[in-house]
Fold this sequence. Notes:
By secondary structure, this protein is of the alpha/beta class. The protein is built from nine helices and seven strands. Strand 1 (40-44), helix 3 and strand 2 form a beta-alpha-beta unit.
Amino acid sequence: MIAPETGRLKLFSDRVAGIYGSEDWCVWLYALAKMQRPKVILELGSGTFATALWLAQAVKENGAGHVWTVDDGRHWSSILAKEPEAFLPEERHERFEDYFRYLVGAFELEAQITWLPQAMPPFPSPGEPIDLLFSDFQHGPDNILDILAFYLPRLTEAGSLFIDSAPTHFASYAMLEILVPLLQAGKIPARLWDRMELPHREPTLEWVRRRSFQLVHLVEAKQRAQNSTAWLRFWPADVRPWPKAAFH
Length: 248
């Protein structure tokens, strides 16, 4: 059953999510979270909080899980100045933290979402293995390697990692096309290995060896700058699909 709150969320995200080109993406992630039921979700780069709210709504409907979203709010004043018509009067708070508090209260999602007001790096960790990681932070090849070096040791046994804009940034696209087959072969390339914290290297290598990986480039038909996301799926190497389900 679809919750009535999603109608309000759709009206909201249709107004504000287009600023970052995510008005369709946040609904897609909501559907994925509803199907896969991730427990720990981490978003790097909150934008206008539209994606985080949709994920939090999925968590609420699933009855379990939590969303962590990270952003220092440095761009908020310029967003308000450039796109004032996207926000209702009650949403136009001068401080990013007040805007966040208003939204989670208005959509009754206080228990499902936590905002971490910090710049990156250093990267934050929820303290539990991450089921779904969405990086809408930086998407250059070195940025992606830094993100993977920190978070590969902190991922759960199966889930998804998303890098915004990587498929339509050629250097990042090419790097991922080389990197993921190496991971699938049970190898961690040197440039990624060297970035990893020493205590995490060997355990992560063993984690990689026991996983299957799939890279999917999600590209919109819309002709605009922010129109793609790289989806890296990972799951335990097995003869059965993930999540495990009865054959028929």
